[in-house]
User: What shape does this take?
Amino acid sequence: MSKRTFTMIKPDATGKSYTGAILDQILKAGFSIKAMKWIRLTEEQAGLFYDIHRERAFFQELVDFMISGPIVAAVLEKENAVADFRTLIGATNPAQAADGTIRKLYAASIGENAVHGSDSDENANIEADFFFSKLERF
Ligand code: GDP
Assistant: This one.
């Protein structure tokens, strides 16, 4: 079981100045930050990151949202990181997210849902490689 996951704080949350509160919640949940950057994606980069969703009806909406402002990308470490982080952020749709989860607290809709969390160890590695070189990870 890998100890690392990948996250993004999405443009809705950075734009509403929730970045500090969300990072605080992540750290208090026991995750440590192994890499982090504040970045604005291009349309091509956002499309590549979400390539798996290219055929979905919401794909362009998702890309437009993800390039609408800056994001914070980070690699996080903790035992059972992928599953525990998915629990911490809550369901994709904040209306269905459990009380106290990041999406319940800070997300407005299924599209603009404040944070990303990898859904498997394999994708955590792929997503971390997308954003960070080896030199940028600790
Ligand atoms: P996640 O793993 O919980 O992030 O959810 P998915 O992998 O299913 O979807 C990826 C991202 O696409 C979500 O986090 C949302 O930002 C977006 N998304 C998913 N479903 C919808 C939808 O029905 N409409 C829109 N606009 N965006 C969606």
